Amino acid sequence: MGDPLGNEMIEAADQLYEKMIAYDPTIDGSRLRRAFIFGMEAHEGQIRASGQPYFTHPIAVANLLVDMNLDLDTVITALLHDTVEDCDVTLGALDKAFGSSVAQLVDGVTKLSRIGRQTEKNSLQAENFRKLLLAMSEDVRVLLIKLADRTHNMHTISHIQKPEKRVRIARETLEIYAPLAERIGVTNLQKTLEDAAFSVLHEEMYQTINARLDYMVQESEIIIPMISVELQDVVERGGVECSVTGRLKSAYSIWRKMQRKKVTIDQLSDMMAFRVLVPDVADCYRALGSIHAAYPNVMGRFKDYISTPKRNGYQSLHTGVIGPENHKIEIQVRTPEMHSVAEFGVAAHWNYNDPGSEENISKFKWIQELVGILDEEAGAEEFLEHTKMDLYHDQVFCFTPRGDLIALPKGATAVDFAYAVHSKVGEKCCGVRINGKNRQLATELENGDKIEIITKASARPLAEWENFVKTGRAKSGIRRVVRAERAVEFSRVGRSILQKSFSEAGKRLQKRTLDKIPQIFGVQKPEDIFALIGEGRMQPEIVLEKLYPDLAKSKRRTKTVDNTKRHQANSRESLLTIQGINPGIAITMARCCHPLPGEDIIGIFTTGKGVTVHRADCANLVDFNDMPELWMDVGWEYEGPKRVMGRLNAVLSNEPGALAAVATIIGQQGGNISNIQLSERNADFFSFKLDLEVKDVEHMRTIIAALQANNFVERVERSNTG
Ligand code: MN
After folding, report:
1. Residues with Cβ < 8 Å from 145, sequence gap 6 or more?
2. d(CA 699, CA 640)
């Protein structure tokens, strides 16, 4: 044993170092070597599906990144990228051995790897998934490492035994990773990923095309150099220095073209592509002029990606011509800089010496645009802070149990998610499990969370949900239900008010009478008018007058105060005296806010109901803003130790003894529990409404303070809704 590095490993480590020092002479060779040993020891004894030692994989990934001239931290991360997920290595250990930058990068790659795509989905799903990966790759290098990782895994995919697993990985590669590579402009990885995935998904077609390509290779061994020389001659005679390379197209791109044009492989003539590299932009157009002058061009093949770059930053001139010896060929003309961007995209602009340098930041400006494309609405905000890609900082992506991915605005909650799945799910949701754990419906979601909404047929949205939901869809859904419920309530009240007015006028509210209402008032159903009356927006007398015009003539509009006397007798709460209200008027404590003696209060006069007393800060008072005539100045009148009911919302941790502790505290403070209603319960907590009889608001405050001091109590507050 002795040397921890076997001979092969020494060779691999040396090769990597040689390649790196060629583009960055300042590289710290001992740090690279330490990473090598660290990774090899961590993966000791692990074997790839191919039968090779596992560490051959991180080495291959590192090499792909070195080929793109990336910095040392990136290469070290590549060597260690699987150590946290597959070995017992902790991020802390990596931080200690290689610094926080490497630890963060490894953490980023690990997180991406843990997000598995569960099922095959439509293209919208794939798009969301790509966004999720981008949102999670805070540092662009994380994504580059992940793409290199996937590239090597695709190289070795034939070693995976199960065909369905190969297909799943290949499809994921084609739908998710290749487009991501394209979008950040890393064409070399994109092409490899596409071709490898294609070979798995369409094995026969891949074989057929490759057989044809193999045949052409023999021919092209002569043809390609021949055409290259002739093209170079044409361009240089036009006064532009250039170098020309030619190649056969990839199997995947040929297949795509066959599909797009609906032709067979025999009908596809242009399988050869040539690249003309010239010194500068002006030369590109001059070279193109020479080529078009020398050969007939193929209609519709010319594209100017220099004046209008592709959205990933790609620039080149494209054309198709009938070239030497009547070969139909494709030609790309570009400068060396354009070429570097075309191959390596984001990585082409990487300053490996100082990732956070001003130079890198300014170079990354174009990436802002490049990635901005992923979301047209994202705008020109600061996407990148130093090397950070703060993409989709305003969005969050979560999974349904079936693996559907749902995009929501940042800060969105489980209720938003439920409504995003379906408005029916939103309306019936009563709980949520996030990553398998019971959580509150108001919990803010995080990227990659798996959300399982629990529904119940009897569940309905609560008005207070509106306070925490983020999406318009959830807001309007909640509002719609709350409004409908309120309308039902108002119409019930309105109907009884109307009934009373009718009986006072000696009339009966019969179906026959009601049937006339819609036509007279231009509404859909009588309930609409009831609701208006219940809300106090219409006087019942108006209905009477319209239905019985005779009554209007001898109109004697009763002031309803007199009529409320009889209600007084059975109104329990009217035992309480309120200043500013004539004795004899029924008093009701508002059920929305349960005012307590000692608090500022407001009376609202309601036709047929007397006065409803609200807390002065009750949110529902806004409903009466445009009816100042209903407002009454009222105050408490003390006469002895009377008790009133107040309501609390409390959230307790779900532990044995919690409720008993709460009951004890309330008793010690002289309060009296009159009712408890559980509203939500799960593994971690339960919340409920607590009705207490207390002396006054001071008394209630003391009880709340005592409750808040208890460990079992997560939250306790005055209820502001019924
Ligand atoms: Mn890996």
Report:
1. 61, 65, 74, 77, 78, 81, 105, 109
2. 15
CB atoms within 10 A of CB 304: 15
What distance in Å separates the CA atoms of residue 322 and residue 297, rounded to the nearest whole number? 6
User: Rounded to an integer, what distance in angstroms lies between the CA atom of residue 444 and that of residue 438?
Assistant: 13
- Beta-sheet pairing, 388-389 with 384-385: antiparallel
Q: Where are the domains of the chain?
A: 7-201, 204-347, 553-640, 644-718
Q: CB of 198 within 8 A of CB of 251? A: yes
- Token digits of residue 145: 């490492």
Residues with CB under 5 A from ligand 1 (ion): 82, 149
- C-alpha 218: how far from chain center: 51
Q: What is the 3-state secondary structure (H, E, C) of 406-468?
A: EEEECCCEHHHHHHHHCHHHHHHEEEEEECCEEECCCCECCCCCEEEEEECCCCCCCHHHHHC
Ligand 1 centroid – CA 60 distance (Å): 10
In which order are the strands placed within the sheet that holds 451-455? 437-439, 429-434, 451-455
Residue 214 in tokens: 């193999």
Fold assignment, 7-201: Hypothetical protein af1432 (1.10.3210)
Assign a CATH topology to domain 644-718: Alpha-Beta Plaits (3.30.70)
Q: What percent of the chain has pLDDT over 90?
A: 25
Cα(57) to centroid(ligand 1), Å: 7
Residue-level length of the chain = 722
Residue 51 CA to ligand 1 centre (angstroms) = 15
Read off φ and ψ for residue 586, nearest 5 degrees. -65, 140
Angle 192-33-352 (CA atoms, 0-180°, nearest 5)? Answer: 55
Residue 54 Cα to ligand 1 midpoint, Å, equals 9
Higher pLDDT, 438 or 308: 438
Element counts in the chain: helices (H) and strands (E) = 29, 22
Place of tokens 């409803």: 612
CA-to-CA dists, residue 393 to 184, 381, 434, 468, angstroms = 18, 11, 21, 19
- Tokens of residue 603, six digits: 């009376």
Q: What does the pLDDT look like over 186-195, one tens digit per residue?
A: 888 999 999 9
| Confidence (pLDDT) at 278 | 95
Single out the residue of 427, 539, 431, 526 nearest to residue 485, CA to CA. Answer: 427
CATH 3.30.460.10 correct for 204-347: yes
442 CA from centroid of ligand 1 (Å): 37
Grouping H, G, I as helix, E, B as strand and the rest as coil, residue 482 is helix
Q: How far is the CA of 340 from the centre of ligand 1 (A)?
A: 26
Quote the CA–CA distance of 499 and 502 in Å, as a whole number. 5
Distance of alpha carbon 334 from alpha carbon 165, whole angstroms: 40
Q: 362 pLDDT band (50/70/90 cuts)?
A: very low
Please give the Cα distance from 469 to 492 (Å, whole number).
Answer: 30
Report the C-alpha dihedral over residues 590, 591, 597, 602, rounded to 10 degrees. Answer: -20
Q: Which residues are catalytic?
A: 85-86
* Conformational region of residue 386, where left means phi above 0, alpha means psi within -120 to 50, and beta covers everything else: left
> What's the CA-to-centroid distance between 312 and ligand 1, angstroms?
26
What is the CA(368)–ligand 1 centre distance, in A? 28
Helix or strand holding residue 489 (H, E): helix 472-504
Q: Is the pTM of this model over 0.85?
A: no
Q: Which residue has the higher pLDDT, 94 or 519?
A: 94
Q: Rounded to whole angstroms, how far apart are CA atoms 503 and 347?
A: 85
Does pLDDT of 82 surpass 80? Answer: yes
Angle, nearest 10°, between helix axes 251-261 and 203-237? Answer: 100
Show Cβ contacts of residue 119 under 8 Å, excluding neighbours closer than 6 positions: 402, 403
How far apart CA 624 and CA 606 sit, in angstroms, is 11
- What's the confidence (pLDDT) of residue 693? 85
Q: Residue 681 and residue 431: Cα distance in Å, rounded?
A: 8
Centre of ligand 1 from the C-alpha of residue 82, in Å: 5
